[in-house]
Amino acid sequence: MNREHLASQLKIDRDEPAVRRRRRRGEERPPWLLFAALGLAAAAALAGVIWFAVARPDLPQVETAQAKAAWSGGAAGGGALLDASGYVVARREATVSAKIAGKVDKVLIEEGQHVEAGQVIATLDDSNARASLEQAEAQAASTAANVKVSEANLAEAASHYARIRRIPAGVMAEQAVEDDRSAYDAAEASLVLARRQAAAGAATVNVYRRNEDDTVVRAPFAGVVTATAAQPGEIVAPVAGGGFTRTGICTIVDMDSLEVEVDVAESFISRVVPGMPASIKLNAYPDWEIPAQVITVIPTADRSKATVTVRVGFKVRDPRIVPEMGAHVAFLSPKPTGAAAATRAVIVPADAVQSEDSGQSVVFVIEGGKAERRAVRLGDRTAEGQFVIAGLSPGETVAVEGADHLKDGQQVRVAASKTR
Length: 420
Fold this sequence. Notes:
This protein is of the alpha+beta class. It contains five helices and 23 strands. Strands 2-17-21-20-19-18 form a six-stranded antiparallel β-sheet, with no helix packed on it. It has a six-stranded antiparallel β-barrel with strand order 3-12-15-14-13-16. It has a four-stranded antiparallel β-sheet with strand order 4-11-9-6, with no helix packed on it.
């Protein structure tokens, strides 16, 4: 290979112009670049001014909620003053058993069957009771026959004694007269004894007839059979015995006596009075609101739970309501009428109400980005919120979070609305 040719390829041409070169220190920038930087800075400053004017981070931030009408409880009453949970119970429920011990002969009912008062639901083996009754009836017939014999003896003694008394004195011996009189008295006493024995015999018959009647078990009241326990051939007794003796034949529930029992905390029991309206929702049917009414407040407290039991009655009857169902009860305030209905109360979150040093309760109504101080008059406070009975209208927006730092007329920045 030619060495001169290789050397010529490695030679650097000093006269070739450089494509790029760095700006030397001290060399001035182009004017257009400076104008572009100034424009960007001005745009950033303008955007900051616009953001500050719109977002106003210097203003206090509050969360709001809307005041709701408190008389939205329907025809049953006003707003809910108190909530409680309990169970459906029956005031009339009986486990039916026979009055005497015996072997079950027939069971004439099934679970779920409706029975009327006095209806026969079961029978016991009455062979022994019937035999005892027949024996008592025979004895009663015997004592009744003795009465007739005594009556005949008395009639004869009375007739003989009457004839003796008509005989002139001195004709008959004195002893004979006394004997006839004694016979008459004895016949009269025998008749009295026979009649008493006959009465005792009749009473004995009545006892054994009742014993036989007790082998027939009847429903004590109208209701629905919820459970059956005994079957034919089993031994039942009114009290628990040894072995496999049962004490009940079936359980009957009067469905018209169903009500709800709830436990109310002692601190809230003053709000519950007999006759006040209520609303019941069954756990099995949460969308079904059942009108109800407080029956009574049981006048005793549970020391362990610090509660008082309240009985609440249904205003409607429905076959879907059965004993031992879980239930939720809302105690309602009476619905206002006349002039009171025009000034309905509202309910707001409890945090929306502030208490001033003077004791005045206030809320801050948010409108147009400003907080307006509003003096209000309060009602009851429940789990739903605080009832306001004066000073606030339904639909107005009140401050909740951050309301304790607001002043009247102060501009605010609304962060979000509470869903309550």
